[in-house]
Specification:
InterPro entries: Galactose-bd-like_sf, Pest_crys, Pest_crys_dom-III, Pest_crys_dom_I, Pest_crys_N_sf, Pest_cryst_cen_dom_sf, Pest_cryst_dom_II, Ricin_B-like_lectins
Family: Belongs to the delta endotoxin family.
Number of domains: 4
Largest sheet: 7 strands, mixed
Keywords: Sporulation, Toxin, Virulence
Number of strands: 37
CATH architecture of the largest domain: Up-down Bundle
Low-confidence stretches: 1-45, 689-696
Helix content: 10-25%
Shape: globular
Organism: Bacillus cereus
CATH topology of the largest domain: Delta-Endotoxin, domain 1
Strand content: 25-35%
Protein name: Crystaline entomocidal protoxin
CATH class of the largest domain: Mainly Alpha
Mean pLDDT: 89
Structural class: alpha+beta
């Protein structure tokens, strides 16, 4: 990207991908056949195609292995957490698995993947030394695991204690001596994944000594020394990884794009040589080079760095562990081309990558397909795409769209329910012509336009059949295409597409449980105002931060909606905040429930840093204890003075943790024909059909039961959505539909997400709630029991107005 030297900001702007676009080839290719011929000749041979395929596999499998390690750590609970070497033994097999006869193959693959991402070859001497040290680490950890197994079984046996003390010391020394070989000067970037994964093992080892050292018979002073070393190494390793990542971004930014390399980019053949449009493929290829490093190194390095603070057993001492949520958003490969007004890396970055923001969940996608002009050179043209988004805990949605000038009429509007999109594929020509969407299990959801064959999701965790991320955002840039003869051409359409993804550890609600400590990223709030802004994180926090500037008004600046699980209600919790502050400050924290404050406090906050943020910039504030008595409450914040304060995470720690019960098995889906009776009255839901005045907009009212077909409903369950369509028996093509903002009507069935309903047990003599699938924070609502009263769709509040009973008809 050296033609764009005006860009000098390399902060994290998180990104991701399943169809890996390999990088500009290494100066010294690892395949022996390539070593004596030039790059241009190599790329035009079958050897060149093989080279590209091998490197794609290396990157993809490396990312998948790292995601598998991360998933294992995130899911760790007892007895894994309560055993020496418990977590180490779970992730050991990801790092030392047999690829043929080479036990170090995974580590070599990590090196080769990053070499490819930044076009920098590690010398044979540096590689050989690193591999040799990794073999020593492997042997030491195997011996440590054997000693740990002995002690876990015989915790009071003197010889078992002595054995694990001796082996811990030996293993720790081995890793301490090995770590410098993974950060050799000049090769820090291509070795970064190796360094991060080795550092992760070292920190887990030190955690064991702090957690179990007293039981092993270590003197208290020695255990304290290891605690000091754990804190020191966590800070050192974290800062090294984030700084080296930033250095790698600069290297990736300077890579040279070549959109006519069809071994690397076969989907551009022959379009990138088009005499009119070919030049517009350079910018997206250039952006992908930079973004590929950014995305893949977040997945392989920064995600694991984000969990390291929880390895401190004195701060995180809950035996049930911690529920960690990664809030960063990553972006997959951009496909297509732009136009004269957006054909630069900066334009792509500005349009496709969202600035720091509160977490949003993607509820629906809408694609406007326009009619084609005579002799237009594309088979399908999209003129607009709309994201329907929702903040966590909010009952309202909002839209963000990308469009081109409306020069042609709309042919079709495609609506896609987007709450469970785990993967997608594209149909590619000169620009993308269609999108096929799949759920977390890769089961098809729907296709818009032509069916696709180019996968563009995020890799699965190694060993898992489910997708690791879910779609969070779609953006597109304008291009132009030829249609007929002047002045009919060029004509605009959306031709360059990008996709954002969130990790599945990030839940759609802020639910606290009875066993694990729940970490809620501050960016999962539903409001940030009065001087509160979302800012880029330093790379080590797993996402962005909420910055609170001093505000002396009466309102709060950051509000987070929390819902305890059913068993968590009434139980006591401790509220803790992870924060950084640029100056001494005073922070208000309060628990707010339905127009009333309960627990509140104003807390003195000391300055924790100046200049750039580091690991040690972050501290913890114990706020207050509270009882989770309500079905829903808010935790709210305000910086009264000083600061600014940067809120990273809010932690809900059970005071007396107990196991969270297994969720009950869902009941068998309802089938057949029913009447819907309201809790407020014995009257029934009726479809008032008046097609002369309001065709396709039949009103739903409450009426006396006349046993008419307009008062009877057929329930049809969708297994993929886990939701129902509710069809009128009088006209089964009319289904109960939420019509924004708050209407409930019978509308012709188009399988819109707003035409599905989640039936939830109200726990009251057979009554249920009907929550809308498109926005599950909204529910069917009956304001009054008066005859003729219209049903509405209102924020879900579990009131009697929202309770209904299905009476099955014989």
């Amino acid at each position: 990207m050296n033609q764009y030297n005006n860009k000098n900001d390399y902060e994290i702007i998180d990104n991701a991908d399943m169809y890996y676009q390999p990088k500009y080839p290494l100066a010294e290719a690892p395949c022996s056949e390539l070593q004596q011929i030039s790059y241009e000749k190599v790329m035009n041979t079958s050897v060149g195609r093989k080279y590209q395929a091998v490197q794609q596999v290396n990157v993809g499998e490396s990312v998948s292995a790292a995601l598998g390690i991360l998933a294992t750590i995130l899911k760790a609970v007892n007895p894994t957490l309560g055993a020496a070497a418990g977590v180490i033994s779970k992730i050991f097999g990801f790092l030392w698995k047999q690829f043929g006869t080479d036990s170090q193959a995974q580590w070599k693959q990590f090196m080769e993947a990053v070499e490819y991402l930044v076009n920098q070859k590690i010398t044979d001497a540096v590689r050989s030394k690193a591999v040799s040290e990794l073999a020593g680490v492997q042997n030491a950890l195997e011996l440590y695991q054997e000693a740990a197994d002995d002690w876990n079984i015989n915790p009071n046996d003197t010889s078992a204690k002595e054995r694990i003390r001796r082996q811990f010391s030996s293993t720790n020394t081995t890793i301490e001596f090995a770590m410098p070989s993974f950060r050799v000067s000049g090769f820090e970037v291509p070795l970064l994944t190796v360094f991060a994964q080795a550092a992760n093992l070292h920190l887990l080892l030190l955690r064991d000594a702090v957690k179990f050292g007293n039981e092993w018979g270590m003197p208290a002073a020695e255990v304290e020394d290891y605690y000091t070393r754990l804190q020191k190494r966590t800070a050192e390793y974290t800062d090294y990884c984030t700084n080296t990542y930033d250095k790698g971004l600069k290297q990736a930014y300077d890579l040279a794009p070549n959109p006519t390399d069809y071994n690397k980019y076969p989907y551009l053949n022959p379009y990138s040589k088009d005499p009119i449009y070919g030049k517009y493929y350079t910018a997206p290829v250039d952006w992908n080079l930079f973004n590929d490093f950014r995305r893949d190194m977040i997945l392989m390095v920064l995600d694991i760095v984000a969990v390291w603070p929880t390895y401190n057993p004195k701060i995180y001492n809950n035996p049930y562990g911690v529920q960690i949520q990664l809030s960063r958003e990553v972006y997959s490969t951009v496909y297509g081309r732009g136009w004269t007004n957006n054909s630069s890396v900066d334009a792509i970055e500005y349009t496709l990558v969202r600035p720091p923001h509160l977490v949003t969940e993607l509820k629906k996608l809408t694609f406007d397909e326009r009619n084609l002009f005579e002799a237009e050179t594309v088979p399908i043209a999209f003129s607009k795409v709309t994201n329907t988004l929702q903040y966590v805990g909010s009952s309202t949605t909002w839209e963000q769209s990308f469009s081109v000038p409306p020069i042609a009429s709309i042919k079709t509007v495609h609506n896609v329910s987007a709450t469970d999109i785990g993967n997608l594929s594209l149909s590619l020509g000169a620009v993308p012509f269609g999108f096929s969407f799949y759920n977390k299990n890769d089961n098809p959801i729907t296709t818009v336009g032509y069916s696709g064959g180019w996968w563009n999701g995020i890799p699965k965790d190694e060993g898992s059949n489910q997708n690791s991320h879910h779609l969070s955002y779609v953006a597109a840039l304008e291009t132009q295409t030829t249609a007929g003869w002047f002045p009919t051409y060029p004509v605009p359409l959306l031709g360059e597409w990008g996709f954002g993804w969130l990790h599945n550890s990030l839940t759609s609600t802020n639910t606290i449980v009875t066993d694990r400590t729940t970490q809620v990223p501050a960016v999962k709030g539903n409001a940030a105002e009065f001087g509160a802004t979302v800012v880029r994180g330093p790379g080590s926090t797993g996402g962005d931060l909420v910055k609170l500037s001093a505000y002396n008004g009466g309102s709060t600046q950051l509000r987070i909606v929390v819902r305890p699980s059913a068993t968590a209600r009434t139980r006591p919790y401790k509220l803790r905040i992870r924060y950084a502050s640029e100056g001494n400050a005073n922070l208000f924290v309060g628990k707010y429930v339905v127009n009333r404050w309960w627990e509140t406090g104003n807390f003195a906050v000391d300055r924790t840093f100046s200049g750039a943020m580091t690991y040690n910039s972050f501290k913890y504030l114990d706020a207050f204890n509270f009882a989770a008595n309500e079905e829903e409450f808010k935790i709210e914040f305000r910086c009264n003075s000083g600061g600014p304060i940067y809120i990273d995470k809010i932690e809900f720690i059970p005071v007396n943790p107990i196991p969270e019960p297994e969720p009950p098995k869902p009941p068998e889906p309802l089938k057949g024909t029913y009447q819907i009776r309201a809790y407020l009255t014995s009257n029934v839901a009726s479809l008032f059909i008046n097609s002369a005045s309001q065709p396709d907009r039949e009103l739903l009212t409450i009426q006396k039961n006349y046993n008419q077909d307009t008062q009877k409903w057929k329930l049809v369950y969708d297994e993929g959505k886990k939701a129902y369509q509710i069809k009128s028996l009088a006209n089964e093509n009319l289904v109960l539909t939420w019509v924004s903002p708050d209407f409930a009507k019978g509308i012709t069935n188009h399988s819109y997400s707003s035409q599905y309903w989640i039936i939830e047990d109200a726990g009251d003599d057979g009554y249920v709630y009907l929550r809308n699938y498109a926005n599950d924070m909204l529910a069917l609502d009956l304001p009054s029991s008066m005859y003729g009263m219209y049903f509405t769709v209102k924020p879900f509040d579990r009131s009697s107005r929202q309770r209904f009973r299905f009476n099955k008809l014989s």
